[in-house]
Amino acid sequence: MTDLQKQLEDSLVEGLELIEKATDSREVEDIRVNLLGRKGTISMQMKGVGKLPPEDRPGIGKTANVVKAKLTAALTDKLSVLDSDAAGDSAIDMTLPGRRRGIGRKHPISHVIDDAVEIFRRMGFVVADGPEIEDEFHNFDALNTPADHPSRDIQDTFYLNDGRLLRTHTSPVQIRVLENQQPPVRIVAPGRCYRRDTPDATHTMNFHQIEGLYVDENVSLSELKGILLTFAHEMFGVDVNVRFRPHFFPFTEPSLEYDFSCMNCGGGGCAVCKQSGWLEISGAGMVDPAVFEKVGYDPEQYTGYAFGMGIERLAMLRYGINDIRLLYENDVRFLSQF
Ligand code: PHE
Hints:
With 338 residues, the chain is of the alpha+beta class.
């Protein structure tokens, strides 16, 4: 062992003893400066390294590092022991009020989904589920959407590199259920959807829908109207009315869009309904026979209706939210209101 090595190890032993005996944090700090400071014992000892033969130098460097690490650890330990001693009874102020822990809440979107599912459950629907990463077959082809339909455009749909895509609506769940079940089928499928929209007060690139599907013998359009009217009453109150407007979807025939009468003004016209008295909710219709053929159902035997609903739209109407982006900012001041 070189002299220097011996000196370093002596410093370690002495240092540990001093640290052990220290009684307050000032003393600990003084010891630290004296031992490890720029002009402290260890630094001074290390000045001797230059005079050693080159082959001895790395060994000394290593020893010095070990000594420093051990001293640093001992100093830290000592400080935390002194700290916790100081925090004896006298350090706790019994008169301070307690700290309240924030309680989490359901997100308004989850609220609306849960309530909508509950309403449909009471009407005999069961919940179905499908993947958010879909293939073109379920999202488009099986829904009778032609290859050149604009909704397939990369401007509207997020495609993955392997040709799959982020579902643009919950309608592919219709197909997944029909592929695996025989009629009667009566499901609702809530879930997240994606479209390449530019975000603004009424659009976000991901949003939620709830899909409804009922297939059996002799299902009629008037039943669809009855279901949607009942839903509107349960969700928004008995004064709300429903109206159908003709529309087009590739997977329903006839297709329609439906509106709820404005629950804000009672249908008289206000800023929420842009003076029209009606609020657009989403699309619906009778399942197109071409869809039944794609999933192997006999279109002569079965009929059915399907509908979609925009969850964010329902949430905005229900809670009077005027910008959809508020639902996705996760600002606790906003969320704690629901
Ligand atoms: N999937 C349609 C959309 O996203 C809505 C819809 C659902 C229309 C079911 C008809 C039947 O716009």
